[in-house]
Design a protein that fits this description.
558 residues
Length: 558
Amino acid sequence: MTYTRRSALAGVGAGLLCGRAFAQGSAGGALDLAIFNIRAWTGQRGAFTDAIGVRGNRIVAIGAAAVRAGTVRRTQAIDGQGAFAMPSITDCHTHFLRGAADLLLPDLLDVTSRAEFVDRIGRAVRSLAPGEWLRGGPWDEQRFGGVLPHREWIDAVTPDTPVAIPRTDLHSLFLNSVALRLAGITRDTPDPAGGVIERDARGEPTGVLKDNARDAVLRVIPKPSDAAIDRQLRAGIDHALSKGVTQVHNTEVNWSVHDAVRRLRRAGPTGLRFNSLVPLRDWERVVELVRTEGTGDDWVRWGGLKCVSDGSLGARTARFHEPYADAADQRGVWATSVEDMREWIPAADKAGLAIAAHAIGDEANDVVLDIFADTVRRNGARDRRFRIEHAQHLAPGAVRRMAAQGIIASVQPYHAVDDGRWAVKRIGEERLNRTYAFRSLLEGGVTTCFGSDWPVAPIDPMTGLDAAVRRQTIDGANPGGWHPEQRVGIEDALIAYTATAAYAGFQEDRFGRIALGMIGDFILLDRNLLTAGPADYLRPRVLRTFVDGRERYAASDA
C-alpha cells in the first residue's frame, strides 16, 4: 500500500478513538513527522518496520497502524515511496575541519603523473591572493609513480607562494622552498623527536615533513579568520548530511574544530552532531572545562581525549616490532613518547575522561594495550570504553587481548582498499594476515565501530561499506577482494556505523537505532542495502536525512 497525507489522515479518527496504535507507541498526542511506505531496517538484526512517527525530536510510533493513529492535519506526512530507511550514520573518526576545507581546494588525489601534479599546483597558486598559503588538497605519491615529491618539482610554479599540502594520510606535509624558508628549516635542522625531515642525496630537505616535523611549519601558517572557518564548516556539514552522516567524532590533535563547532553551536543547532576529542596532553584543561561547563549537549559534546602514539604506514612512521620490508633500518616513530602516555592516560582516566589512542603499527597497538591494562589495574573498574583508533596492524594475540580488555576498535574500512594496493611493499605478506582484520575483530568479540578518517578517505559511508564487505582495492586489481578472509557481512558493517558507533560515544540509549524513545536521526536511501548485490554498494543515493526529528537534507528528486 502507498501512503499519502490524504490516506494517512483518513484513518486518524478511528485510530485515535480505539487507541490501538499508540498502545504500540507512546501515550496520546499528535505526531510532528510521519513517514509511511518505507522498508526501514531498525538497527537490530533482521528487524524492520514500515513507518516511523516522531514527536518533537523523539521516535514515538513505529509501524503503519501506530503512525496513522498519530497523524493529524498539522503532521508533516511523507510518502517514502518504498525507500529503504535506516538509522543515520555516525562517523567515528574524522578530521572535520581539514576535510571541510579541502572541499574548497584543488583535488590532487586523482592525478596520475608528476606533470599533472605540478600543473594543478601551479594553477591553484594563480588563484590565490598575494601571500596566501596553498594548503591542499591532499596528495598520494602512490598514484603518480610511487616517488615522494621534491620541492624542486614545484618551485618554478610557486616562486612567491608558500605551499604546505598534506599527504592523504595527514601524517606528512609537502612544502616548497618558500615554505621551508618561512619555517626555518635548512639542511642543518635536526629531525625532531617523533618526526622526520626527508632529505635528498645532497642532504638538503626535499620538502616532505613527517609527523612531528610538521610542527615547525604549522606554527608559521596564518590562522584563517572565524568567518572563513565558519564557511568551511557549513560546507562540510552540508556535504556530510548529503551522505547520510548525522554525527562525527572529531579525533583531533588540536583544538581547532572544538573551538569552531562550539562557536557555531552558540548560534543555534549545528545541523550535524559533533563529538569533540582533543589532545591527551591537555587533559587537565579538559577536566577544568568539564568542571565549569559540563560536557555540552547532543549537538556538540566534549570530554574525550585523543592520543597519537605513532605515525602512518604510508610515511613509514607507524611503529612496528620488526623493521619495514622496504626500509630495513626503520621501525617507525613514537609521535607521543611511551613515557608521556604512561603518565597522561592513567591521570586522565582517573579524572573520568574518555580516551582514544591512535595506534597503527603492531608495537604501537601492543604498547597502548599494555598502558590501558595498567590504567585499569591502577584506577579500578568503571565504564570507560577505551578506544584504539585504527587498530591497523596487529600482533598475534592482540585481538584476544582487545576482547578481554573490552577495548573498542575504531577502524576505517576504506583504508584497506586504498593501502591494499601497496601495503605488501612496506611490511611483507606475513604481517598482512593481521592487517585491517575487521572480520577477526568481530568474530573475536571485539566491539568494532566504523569511520572514515575524512579527508584521508571519503566521508561517504557507502565507500566504507563497500570496502568492508567487498575489500576490492581502488585500482581494481583484486576482483575477489584483498585478503578476502577479512570481509564482513553487510549487516555487520551497518551495525558498526550505527548502533556500535552510538555505543562508542556513550549514546546507545538515544542513537543508533529506530526504536521508541530514540532521537529521530535516520535516513532514506534509494535502494535496500541488505538485499543489494555487492556491485551496488557504491551506488546507493541518500534521498533524505533527518536529524533531531527534522529533515536536514533532501535530494532534488526526493
